[in-house]
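May I ask you for just one protein sequence along with its backbone structure tokens in two labelled lines?

_____
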Amino acid sequence: MKNAKNIFRQYLKEAGMLYSRQREQILDVFLQTERHSTIGDLHELVKRENPRIGLATVYRTMRIICQAGLARETDFGDGFRRFEHKYRHQHHDHLVCLECGRVIEVISPEIEGLQETLARRHEFVPTSHKMQIFGVCRACERDADIKRNKE
């Protein structure tokens, strides 16, 4: 099985784009993080490796990494685009805390099965889907309870 770097290099070649050390550094940083990173987050991490890499270069490279099938862009409704791993990562959905911004990845075969059943029942061919549930995480709920009890 190919590794992510080989897939990236092959994609660049097939798309007629040039390979560069900067692009590889950005890919390396992205592959090392398991968070739902914004461009700003990734840029800060990349600058530690190479301070000459600009924000626009990180943005353009992340678009290419997504096109290569190694990442996916996601939006949790807060105005920031985030990037998460796609290659060798199982499909998952998200629980998003509206208080602290914590994102919990959840995997549920039951939900996936229900989605497939619904699509079949309505003679619908899905090409992709995402589920995001917004609410308050346990820690923030606990903090709110403590705060209410003090008042």
User: Anything to note?
Assistant: The chain has two domains: 1-89, 90-151.
